[in-house]
Amino acid sequence: MVFKKRALKKLVKDKNEADAQPQLEDPKIEAPPEEALSTELNLNIQYLQQTFGNSSDLSFSDFELGNKKAVLIYINGLVDKMIIGHFFENIGRFDHLIKHSEFLTKTIEASDFMKQFFAPVNQVKEVRLYKKVVSAILAGNAVLLVDSISHALVINAKGWRDRDVSESATENVVRGPKEAFTENIQTNTALVRRKIKDPRLWLEKKEIGNITQTSISVMYIHSIANDKIVKEVHERLDKIDIDGILESNYIEEFIQDEVYTPFPTVFNTERPDVVAAALLEGRIAIFIDGTPFVLLVPALFTHFFQAAEDYYQRWDISTLLRLLRVTAYFISLLGPSVYIAIINFHQEMLPTPLLISLAAQREGVPFPALIEALIMEVTLEILREAGLRLPKAIGQTVSIVGALVIGQAAVEAGIISAAMVIVVSITAISNFILPAYNMGIAVRILRFLFMFLAGSFGLYGIAAGIFALSLHLCSLRSFGIPYMEPLAPYIGSDMKDTLWRKPRWKLVTRPRLLNQTNVVRENVSPKNK
Amino acid sequence: MVYTIISLLIIGAILLIDKRKLKKYKNSKDLWVYFGILGLGFVLLLIHSSGRTLPTPLYWISAVLKPIISIF
Amino acid sequence: MLENGKISVRQFTVLVALYTVGTAILIIPSILAAKAMQDIWIAGLIGLGSGLGLVFFYWKISERFQFMNLVEILEKCFGKWIGKAVAFSYFTFYIFILSTFVLRDIGDFMLTVMMVETPIEAIHIIFLAVVLYGVKLGLEAFTRTTELFLPWIVILFVVLFITLLPQIEFTNILPIMENGIQPVLRSSLSFIVFPFLELVVFLMIIPYVNEPKKTKKAFLLGTALGGGLLILIATLSILVIGVTETARSIYPTYDLSKTINIREFFQRVEAFMALIWFITVFVKLVVLTYALCLGMASVFNVQDYKLLTLPIGLLLYIVSLVIFPSSTYLIEFTPIYDFYAVLWMLMPVFIWLVSLVRGKPV
């Protein structure tokens, strides 16, 4: 460890020294990136070709513009072919047009004309620096360079293929909006804007990733979100120094409060309605370009038990479903361990007939209950992981084989008792009930710990494990908000929408800690309902 | 012998868990208190694990208090 | 500042209540029944009344010294060095011994009733590890945990109470005051000593409540709730399993939950009922160890009490193993302990007197 750290330090030091020294310029590149564009077109083209290393997808289309040589530069695939086609179509009519306009004003410059010509349809910008030209090309714009003119025209021609807004794949609902985010950040923010039509919905843009230059947007409702938390989010985002951001988890791992915990302290969702609801509660959304998963902070323990649909069904239904989820959570956490503890240490707790039948089943089983459970759980986890990423056709085979292995064959071979199969399958199914996948994984990890505790100390071990787990949960914070809020610290007014949900007209106030100023949500009391 | 090894393991675990804190207070006199208490604990642990029974502090308490109580 | 966290008044109440229930819930019925017999509830009420007076007195001390912690109070009162010496002996000879008792209670209980084959060392290490983890996480974290446990205690207790209702026999508490008031008073003294006297450690925690001035009501309310629960349990065990059984049994509450039997269906749930006790003992030990670490840190001017947690834990572990050479020794020692604890009770009284003589401090 120590050596590794030292080697890393040396590496960083070397890099910094190398950065400090002026790099040897390639003699061919005459213009360093900070400098302004040259008036000579060939020089500019040469420089750009050097910078991009003659990349094959960078295309230079030469043509003549009012007796001057001109070139349109763009990256194939990032620009919309229609716009480019439209551009060149008009070049053909150019002479005619420019004569027509010369007729009006004598001194029009070709590029100025182009600018005005395209301005209404596409955003057109003038830039003068190489650096800007390069980043404009990379962002998917087409850049027009004209000989003897020292500025370039950046024409917004962005138009690559995006996935359409489609139905959510990970968070399904029976009732409620079906749309989900896509990989395009602009589409995503627009999806939320369409739901919240208020100027107080603020969106702040950043670019993170030294190489990927990924756009990140922080969205919140000003005057509802807690300013302190907004500031904290910005501070944490600004601290990130990484070469690339490809998915929201890159950000999540940087901004979460506690690293050494199985529990997620940042929420992610791909549903616009969930984001909108969270924003209305005063939470903050972080959009990352290139992924449909949007981060929501602060994320508290109870949030992971709330499915989007809880708000689209009547309150009594969703209350019962939530309670069911909490029960399932405990079963999936403690199911096998309680079984192990009872079989090993506390047989007296079982009614005699049940005990006899269990003992009869376990008679031929060669392993102690802990090993038996471990075999089953590990097999199950392997099957689950295997089924997750396989092509659908093979996935089915795996599940059939798995069902046979895990179920009947193992019992008939006398390796596993039938009761254990029941316990393990109930545990597994309970785990699927949780709406949040990352919370489910936390439970999967902890389940094994509890099994070991139960195998060595019985219910006493489980109790000790629960104490340690509760202490851990209570020590967590998400952006300064205690993770177990409103259960601990207990905030009565926030309990209405946690493990149960009260009727809509009773959800009058927003969560207290998330928001300190603008608490009242609606002025509907049961009387004037 | 086994118990001695376990005692050493316990002490090792304590030092390992406190590693970061110990580094933080490297040059302060707080470490004297820390290692004072830890050393006392270690000695007691060794004696206990070697099989000798340590006297309970309650003996002394009752030795002092019994005559006083008998007055009442 | 040794502790940066702040807890709310509500959290303080919960902490006090569960601390009061603490180890007492399992043992107190037998201690009370030994002398007071069927008048256990009278003894309990007298004990609770005096306990509330005691708590009020503790709070007054805290208020008089502008809610400083106990070590600071002692230093203020007796001067720096004598104050430190008194605080040191107080923490070593009272709080430390008390913590080892609590830890040993868990070990003995597990060994006698639930897991006979497991070595007591393992039981102590597991429990202590969790407690030390809690202390290391700090006051805020373990207080929140306590709050999280509260509903479970309430649920389990209500279940215990309801399921025992059919078995209650009111003739068990008759006749009232058969042997006069003397034994009742004697056993109420044990009741005062056992949970209420020990509440003095909250003098270390009151300074970290966000509104210390409002703690008076919380302190009294917490004590009353905890004490009330204890009286209820003690009376329940007399009503259900009778005086002789209660007095003879080491863990009457556990035996009480063993009798739960609803139509041969809901029975043998004592292991779950033991969870009430686990939680309250856990809270009690966390608070004691926390106070111990904090106290020692202020005595030795250590900047961070968390530094001392593990060494003190190690000492707790060893001493808890040797504290009772045999279980008969415990019975022999109990009357001495009552006296010993009362002796330490003189210290707050002393503080009060000194502060009266010296006039209003600060």
TrEMBL record, chain A:
The chain crosses the membrane at residues 284-305, 326-345, 415-437, 449-473. Keywords: Membrane, Transmembrane, Transmembrane helix. GO terms for biological process: spore germination. InterPro entries: Spore_Ger, UPF0353/GerABKA_families. It comes from the Bacteria. GO terms for cellular component: plasma membrane. The keyword Phosphoprotein does not apply. Belongs to the GerABKA family. This is Spore germination protein. It comes from Fictibacillus arsenicus.
From TrEMBL, chain B:
It comes from the Bacteria. The keyword Transmembrane applies. Keywords: Membrane, Transmembrane, Transmembrane helix. The chain crosses the membrane at residues 31-50. The keyword Transmembrane helix applies. This is Uncharacterized protein. The lineage of its organism: Bacteria, Bacillati, Bacillota, Bacilli, Bacillales.
From TrEMBL, chain C:
Pfam families: Spore_permease (PF03845). Its main location: membrane. Keywords: Germination, Membrane, Transmembrane, Transmembrane helix, Transport. It is a multi-pass membrane protein. InterPro entries: Spore_GerAB. The chain crosses the membrane at residues 12-34, 40-61, 81-102, 122-142, 149-168, 188-206, 218-243, 271-295, 307-331, 337-357. It comes from the Bacteria. One of its GO terms (biological process) is spore germination. It is found in: Membrane. The keyword Glycosyltransferase does not apply. GO terms for cellular component: membrane. Belongs to the amino acid-polyamine-organocation (APC) superfamily. Spore germination protein (SGP) (TC 2.A.3.9) family. This is Uncharacterized protein.
